[in-house]
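re: the backbone from monday

yeah here it is again, tokenized this time
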């Protein structure tokens, strides 16, 4: 089934007022972005410490008399540690983005 296009093939026709209104987006540099970046930095630090702690408890030593030390790896703890680091990395990138947008001046 073919449906007619709402405007001709050469595109919709806009008035100058419509074009001016569409080219003035909301400003990206807003002061609240600095607060968001600060909160994200704190969350990144907490996630990094949590990942370090989870990685440490993810290796449980097994003591066997007369043998070299052996470790049991707890996969769920190690996976949570890796996930915490990945989330911390994403939040760190977003914190940098928010800080740049908070500090950028509009031209």
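seq for it, each position gets an aa:
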């Amino acid at each position: 089934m073919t449906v007619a296009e709402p405007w001709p093939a050469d595109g919709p026709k806009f008035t100058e007022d419509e074009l001016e209104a569409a080219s003035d987006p909301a400003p990206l540099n807003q002061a609240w972005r600095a607060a968001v970046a600060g909160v994200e930095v704190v969350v990144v630090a907490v996630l990094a410490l949590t990942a370090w702690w989870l990685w440490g408890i993810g290796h449980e030593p097994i003591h066997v008399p007369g043998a070299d030390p052996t470790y049991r790896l707890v996969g769920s703890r190690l996976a949570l540690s890796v996930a915490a680091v990945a989330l911390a990395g994403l939040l760190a990138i977003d914190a940098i983005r928010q800080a740049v947008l908070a500090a950028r001046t509009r031209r």
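The chain has one domain: 29-103. The radius of gyration is 26 Å.
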